[in-house]
Design brief:
binds adenosine-5'-diphosphate; binds magnesium ion; 252 residues; alpha/beta; globular; Rossmann fold
């Protein structure tokens, strides 16, 4: 689909983005585009700035230089109000789950709806229930985060990221801590959101199987830059030495 995909509109565009924390340079000229309805995978060693990058896209962090655009808008320049508007279109699955401990599962998933819509209570509960069903935990609604496993928390986070039916979803390691069967379900769900609803997404992920299932393109983030970007087949066949070392011998 590469040829066709290149004619689609750019939804997320990073251009020469630099970001440091104190003397630590994390992003050193990061650039890439994500086109409408496509999924970009991001792989790279731990601590290279993958989560930092996603935080820029959703406006939780601000770059030192360069440009981060979503739907043609410069994220760092948006007013609070416009950023809130933009965020209504975006879902974010946090790497650490980020559930609120004193709220039930249902209340956690309902949060984006309560913040961003004026839907009546019964409709909110219905939408939440449908998303919990979709991620395979229809009966978990009354549980507290402390009562559920890590894998289940991940699925609650996913239900929350999807509950407003966003046009853009950022997934930060959606498979971490999930067993293979659940992982396959989650991957199939991500694929479906893209194919059926045309969601545009970025997926930070280590698992090759997930990347191959859900991504149209994959980017290797190393030393603060995108050093390889290609469709999965080409990406996993790349002979870039650092990427080869990162992937290990099995995946060749
Ligand atoms: N808010 C912050 N303040 C200072 N350093 C940070 C902050 N967020 C991330 N970092 C640092 O930036 C680097 C990249 O982090 P991160 O994006 O979380 O890596 P990963 O690629 O594993 O997701 C790490 O060294 C991390 O310690
Ligand atoms: Mg991370």
């Amino acid at each position: 689909m590469a040829g066709e995909a290149n004619e689609r509109r750019v939804v997320i565009r990073l251009k020469d983005v630099h970001k440091s924390f104190g003397s630590q340079q994390v992003l050193k000229g990061m650039s890439f585009d994500v086109r409408d309805g496509t999924t970009l995978g991001i792989m790279g060693p731990s601590g290279t700035g993958k989560s930092v990058l996603l935080r820029h896209v959703i406006g939780l962090m601000r770059q030192d230089s360069g440009s981060v655009q979503v739907e043609g808008q410069e994220v760092a320049d948006l007013s609070r109000k416009d950023l809130a508007e933009l965020r209504k279109k975006m879902g974010y699955l946090f790497q650490e789950g980020a559930l609120i401990n004193w709220l039930t599962v249902t209340e956690n998933v309902a949060l984006p709806l309560r913040e961003n819509t004026k839907l009546p209570e019964d409709e909110i509960l219905d939408l939440v229930h449908r998303k919990l069903e979709l991620v395979g935990i229809p009966d978990a609604g009354e549980k507290m985060p402390s009562e559920i496993s890590g894998g289940m928390k991940k699925r609650v986070g996913l239900a929350r990221a999807m509950v407003t039916d966003p046009e853009i979803i950022l997934y930060d390691e959606p498979n971490a801590g999930l067993d293979p069967e659940i992982s396959r379900n989650i991957n199939a769900l991500m694929r479906e959101l893209s194919d059926r609803l045309g969601v545009t997404s970025i997926v930070v992920e280590h698992r090759v199987e997930c990347i191959k299932t859900v991504c149209d393109e994959v980017l290797f983030l190393d030393e603060g830059r995108a050093v390889v970007q290609a469709p999965p087949e080409e990406f996993f066949a790349s002979d870039h030495p650092r990427l080869r070392r990162f992937l290990g011998p099995e995946s060749a």
